[in-house]
Design brief:
Rossmann fold, 34% helix, 470 residues, 3 domains, single chain, alpha/beta, six-stranded mixed sheet, 19% strand, eight-stranded mixed sheet
Length: 470
């Protein structure tokens, strides 16, 4: 089979192993900086040139599936020749068994026998799409800590390895890395069927759940906005049997996304918890510069372009009273354009990626966090900001907006309307003396909904109710 792989970013690196025994004609990417270079000894071409090659299939390795698929269709690629990384099971159907054998699972520490010898009655498997330090994986890490503390035998499994593994093993929680979780279904992975209860984290497990043992109760914890379902095959996800399946979401946004596939699905709520690392915030000098901060990977869905447009709408006198810190990975096509478009605005500072400690230090010295995302289920940074008593300006399409009272304990603006965001920024500058009081009320939101104590109480109640049924 002759393949073109469209996308050379994070999801290319996550899924490229499945193509090592295939003939890859080229990688496709829209970044001019990557075009005509080589990645993994494979040439990178613009899509319009790559599709001229004698390929059989184009595989999209990105969550921007809708836009990328339309781009390919516009280039006269037949729809039945376009696959997404969620379709790899179907693409490799004839050789799937052999491919899976190439990738044995890994145990950390090497305690396969210990895992299999655990008492099945209290043996819980927590399944993550990765071991990065991203929001969903960290939420599942906290779940593991709480369950272990309360007497459950917990094992953490992931599709790929990452830095979170060390934190887990240091906490006494065994880890299994099984890359086959990316393409196999539950019935094909024998070792998972030795558990009494399984938690699947994020919609990335919809293929895994499409063929499962319904005797084992599943808690499917959804964190994903509708955007992340763009590459999902409806025929696959709707195969999921709802028997003994308990679905919870991180607020209303993931629930709305899954209800498009299962309109009558009853979906509970389980918000994540954020560890409290501060109780007090120093008073802000009402004459000081107002420090705004936005945190997140620089990409279109995160809405930093809306923030930049809003900043440009501010008068010079207002803007000079501000400092805007844009924190996050900036070496992207979108990020490079954003920096170019803001070269003349000295009040904007691009920090690039920073570690967790630095994020908390920046939040502790900030007056307002801005979350301009165009889709986001429940961004962790907003809960962390409120934990620091920092009020948030959020778009009305993110999950956090459901817990904020506009002008009381935070601010809400209409999604993608830069003038509306500019008005909120200007209000904060003109009323900087009351931001501290609004921040205190934002802290109340954290304590009521996102504190670790609240999360532990709700998690244990949920788990105990499911286990009690067995």
């Amino acid at each position: 089979m002759k393949l073109l792989l469209f996308g050379t970013g994070d999801y290319y690196n996550r899924y490229k192993k499945w193509f090592v025994h295939q003939e890859i004609l080229a990688l496709l990417d829209n970044s001019k900086q990557k075009q005509y270079t080589r990645i993994d000894e494979i040439r990178v071409l613009p899509p319009e040139e790559g599709v001229k090659l004698p390929y059989d299939v184009v595989v999209i390795l990105s969550f921007y599936a809708k836009a990328m698929k339309q781009q390919l269709i516009n280039l006269k690629v037949a729809q039945n020749n376009i696959y997404h990384f969620f379709d790899l099971r179907r693409l490799f159907a004839q050789e799937l068994t052999e491919i899976i054998r190439l990738y044995p699972r890994q145990y950390f520490p090497s305690i396969q026998d210990g895992i299999e010898d655990m008492k099945i009655s209290s043996k819980i498997l927590l399944m993550s799409q990765d071991l990065t330090l991203g929001g969903p994986a960290i939420a599942l890490f906290h779940t593991a800590i709480i369950l272990r503390k309360n007497g459950y035998n917990v094992v953490f499994a992931s599709m790929i390895d990452g830095p979170l593994r060390e934190k887990l093993t240091e906490s006494g929680i065994p880890v299994v890395v099984d890359v086959c979780l990316q393409i196999a279904v539950m019935r094909e992975i024998d070792w998972v069927n030795t558990f009494s209860f399984i938690v699947c984290n994020t919609m990335n497990f919809h293929v895994f759940l499409s063929e499962r043992d319904t005797k084992i109760p599943i808690l499917w914890w959804l964190h994903d906005a509708a955007f992340f379902y763009e590459g999902v095959n409806k025929e696959i996800i709707t195969k999921i049997c709802l028997e003994n399946l308990n679905v919870v979401s991180v607020g209303p946004i993931p629930q709305m996304a899954i209800n498009k596939f299962f309109p009558d699905l009853l979906c509970g709520e389980l918000l994540y918890g954020v560890t409290n690392i501060t109780d007090n915030k120093a008073p802000m000098d009402s004459k000081s510069i107002v420090q705004f901060i936005t945190i997140g990977f620089l990409e279109e869905i995160k809405g930093q372009d809306i923030l930049l447009a809003a900043i440009k709408r501010l008068s010079d006198s207002v803007r000079k009273q501000c400092r805007f810190y844009i924190v996050g990975h900036k070496e992207t096509l979108f990020g490079e354009q954003l920096q170019k478009d803001s070269e003349d605005i000295e009040e904007i500072v691009f920090t690039g990626s920073v570690d967790r400690r630095t994020i908390h230090e920046l939040l502790d010295t900030s007056n307002v966090l801005i979350c301009p995302s165009k889709q986001d289920s429940m961004p962790t940074v907003t809960a962390e900001a409120m934990m620091h008593a920092v009020p948030c300006i959020v778009s009305d399409v993110i999950g956090t907006a459901a817990y904020i009272h506009d002008g009381v304990d935070g601010f809400i603006f209409q999604n993608e309307i830069e003038t509306a965001l500019a008005e909120k920024i200007q209000w904060c500058v003109e009323n900087k003396s009351v931001l501290k009081e609004i921040g205190k009320k934002a802290r109340d939101i954290y304590e009521q909904f996102f504190s670790m104590e609240v999360f532990e109480r709700k998690l244990l109640k949920l788990v105990e109710s499911i286990v009690a049924k067995e």
